[in-house]
Design brief:
Blueprint (H helix, E strand, L loop, with lengths): L3 E5 L3 H13 L1 E2 H4 L6 H10 L4 E7 L6 H7 L5 E6 L2 E13 L1 H8 L1 E2 L2 E2 L2 E5 L3 E6 L15 E3 L2 H11 L2 H9 L12
Parallel strand pairs: 1-4
Antiparallel strand pairs: 1-10, 2-3, 3-8, 4-5, 5-8, 5-9, 6-7
Length: 183
């Protein structure tokens, strides 16, 4: 079963990374030379035949980001979070642990390599405030990389049947009347 992961854009450095990684993407020609494992390089090249890739990295720290990253798998829903709002929606395509790649494209953040990398589908950018009516599904505030809890995932699937249907809610399409800001 697919899971939901939330990553935070909580400082200036993360915002700069987000602006490139999500709004523009990276040219695979600039990324591939720094992926030293040939099998990883081949996968990334095949995933992004249009030569624009989307990736995010988290530090390998003891705050739970590593354990959350290790549970990510292809097809999982990834939500970007900033200031009590969802700012991007995407799906995981591939994960690699690669400090060389991370340090080359992002440098280090507070002395930590952002080596826990996940490649994603082209993100949908949005700015959807998490209102109280959404707390059955999302429970802010979030910090670092977090896997959505089992209860929240169960609530999403019970009410929206699939994570894709839930994601459409975040896009503002078919938005249930009970969750509209105007009510």
């Amino acid at each position: 079963m697919a899971n939901v992961f939330i990553f935070t854009v909580n400082n200036e450095a993360a915002q700069r990374r987000f602006n490139i990684a999500f709004k523009k993407g990276y040219d695979t020609g600039e990324i591939l030379p720094f992926i030293h494992d040939e099998s990883h390089r081949d996968v990334v090249q095949k995933l992004y035949s249009d030569r624009t890739c989307y990736l995010w990295g988290e530090a390998d720290k003891k705050d739970g980001a590593r354990s959350a990253w290790e549970r990510m798998k292809e097809g999982d829903l990834v939500l970007g979070y900033k200031g009590n709002a969802i700012i991007s929606v995407s799906h995981v395509l591939y994960t690699i642990n690669d400090s060389s790649l991370a340090d080359q494209i992002w440098g280090q953040e507070n002395g930590n390599s952002l080596r826990c990398i996940f490649f994603m589908t082209k993100p949908y950018l949005c700015d959807i405030a998490i209102v109280p009516q959404m707390h059955n599904y999302l429970d802010p505030p979030y910090k670092g990389l977090t896997q959505l809890g089992a209860e929240k995932l169960h609530n999403i699937l019970a009410h929206y049947i699939s994570l894709d249907d839930f994601a459409r809610l975040l896009f503002g399409q078919d938005f249930p009347a009970s969750l509209r800001h105007s009510q």
